[in-house]
Amino acid sequence: MHAALENAGLSNTLKNTRLVSQLVATIENHIGKHIDRDSIDYLRLVTHLRFAIDRLEKNAPVSNELLASIKKKFKRAYNIAIQVSKVIENTLEKQVPEEEIGYIAIHIQRLINTI
Questions:
Q1: 2-114: CATH homologous superfamily?
Q2: Rounded Cα gap, residues 40 and 17, in angstroms
Q3: Which of 4, 17, 105, 115 could bridge across to 81 with cysteines, CB 3.0–4.6 Å?
Q4: Domain residue spans in the chain?
Protein backbone atom coordinates (compact mmCIF):
# COMPACT_ATOMS: atom_id res chain seq x y z
CA MET A 1 0.00 0.00 0.00
CA HIS A 2 2.76 2.44 0.94
CA ALA A 3 4.63 1.68 -2.30
CA ALA A 4 1.48 2.36 -4.34
CA LEU A 5 1.03 5.76 -2.69
CA GLU A 6 4.70 6.54 -3.22
CA ASN A 7 4.45 5.60 -6.91
CA ALA A 8 1.32 7.73 -7.33
CA GLY A 9 3.14 10.69 -5.78
CA LEU A 10 6.15 10.15 -8.01
CA SER A 11 3.91 9.87 -11.06
CA ASN A 12 2.21 13.16 -10.15
CA THR A 13 5.59 14.83 -9.59
CA LEU A 14 6.81 13.69 -13.02
CA LYS A 15 3.57 14.85 -14.66
CA ASN A 16 3.87 18.28 -13.04
CA THR A 17 7.57 18.57 -13.92
CA ARG A 18 6.73 17.86 -17.56
CA LEU A 19 3.92 20.40 -17.40
CA VAL A 20 6.22 23.09 -16.00
CA SER A 21 8.73 22.39 -18.79
CA GLN A 22 5.94 22.69 -21.34
CA LEU A 23 4.82 25.98 -19.79
CA VAL A 24 8.35 27.41 -19.91
CA ALA A 25 8.60 26.39 -23.58
CA THR A 26 5.26 28.09 -24.25
CA ILE A 27 6.51 31.29 -22.63
CA GLU A 28 9.80 31.16 -24.56
CA ASN A 29 7.87 30.68 -27.79
CA HIS A 30 5.67 33.70 -27.11
CA ILE A 31 8.43 36.05 -25.96
CA GLY A 32 10.73 34.81 -28.72
CA LYS A 33 13.72 34.33 -26.45
CA HIS A 34 15.43 31.56 -24.48
CA ILE A 35 15.13 31.75 -20.69
CA ASP A 36 18.44 31.13 -18.91
CA ARG A 37 17.86 28.10 -16.68
CA ASP A 38 20.44 29.42 -14.20
CA SER A 39 18.78 32.82 -13.74
CA ILE A 40 16.93 33.86 -10.61
CA ASP A 41 13.98 34.93 -12.77
CA TYR A 42 13.71 31.39 -14.17
CA LEU A 43 13.82 29.93 -10.67
CA ARG A 44 11.11 32.33 -9.48
CA LEU A 45 8.93 31.47 -12.48
CA VAL A 46 9.30 27.71 -12.04
CA THR A 47 8.69 27.95 -8.30
CA HIS A 48 5.54 29.97 -8.89
CA LEU A 49 4.27 27.58 -11.57
CA ARG A 50 4.79 24.56 -9.31
CA PHE A 51 2.88 26.20 -6.45
CA ALA A 52 0.16 27.37 -8.86
CA ILE A 53 -0.29 23.80 -10.12
CA ASP A 54 -0.40 22.57 -6.54
CA ARG A 55 -3.06 25.17 -5.66
CA LEU A 56 -5.15 24.14 -8.67
CA GLU A 57 -4.91 20.46 -7.80
CA LYS A 58 -6.03 21.22 -4.24
CA ASN A 59 -8.71 23.71 -5.37
CA ALA A 60 -7.10 26.30 -3.09
CA PRO A 61 -8.44 29.84 -3.52
CA VAL A 62 -6.17 32.66 -4.65
CA SER A 63 -6.76 36.40 -4.53
CA ASN A 64 -5.02 39.15 -6.44
CA GLU A 65 -5.85 42.76 -5.60
CA LEU A 66 -3.46 43.90 -8.34
CA LEU A 67 -5.28 42.09 -11.17
CA ALA A 68 -6.82 45.15 -12.85
CA SER A 69 -3.49 46.96 -12.76
CA ILE A 70 -1.60 43.93 -14.10
CA LYS A 71 -4.04 43.53 -17.00
CA LYS A 72 -3.72 47.23 -17.87
CA LYS A 73 0.02 47.69 -17.36
CA PHE A 74 1.34 44.32 -18.60
CA LYS A 75 -1.00 43.57 -21.54
CA ARG A 76 1.47 41.46 -23.50
CA ALA A 77 2.55 39.45 -20.47
CA TYR A 78 -1.08 38.95 -19.44
CA ASN A 79 -1.99 37.66 -22.91
CA ILE A 80 0.93 35.23 -22.78
CA ALA A 81 -0.21 34.15 -19.31
CA ILE A 82 -3.63 33.37 -20.80
CA GLN A 83 -1.93 31.06 -23.31
CA VAL A 84 0.01 29.43 -20.47
CA SER A 85 -3.23 28.96 -18.53
CA LYS A 86 -4.78 27.16 -21.52
CA VAL A 87 -1.95 24.62 -21.48
CA ILE A 88 -2.50 24.11 -17.74
CA GLU A 89 -6.26 23.76 -18.22
CA ASN A 90 -5.86 21.21 -21.01
CA THR A 91 -3.45 19.14 -18.92
CA LEU A 92 -5.12 19.33 -15.51
CA GLU A 93 -8.68 19.68 -16.78
CA LYS A 94 -9.22 22.51 -14.30
CA GLN A 95 -9.90 26.17 -14.95
CA VAL A 96 -7.12 28.58 -13.99
CA PRO A 97 -8.55 31.54 -12.03
CA GLU A 98 -7.99 34.97 -13.52
CA GLU A 99 -6.16 35.95 -10.31
CA GLU A 100 -3.60 33.20 -10.90
CA ILE A 101 -3.19 34.28 -14.52
CA GLY A 102 -2.33 37.74 -13.19
CA TYR A 103 0.43 36.37 -10.97
CA ILE A 104 1.84 34.34 -13.86
CA ALA A 105 1.81 37.53 -15.94
CA ILE A 106 4.00 39.29 -13.37
CA HIS A 107 6.66 36.61 -13.76
CA ILE A 108 6.41 36.77 -17.55
CA GLN A 109 6.75 40.56 -17.45
CA ARG A 110 9.90 40.22 -15.36
CA LEU A 111 11.33 37.90 -18.01
CA ILE A 112 10.36 40.28 -20.82
CA ASN A 113 12.13 43.11 -18.98
CA THR A 114 15.33 41.20 -18.22
CA ILE A 115 15.94 39.01 -21.25
A1: PRD domain (1.10.1790.10)
A2: 18
A3: 105
A4: 2-114
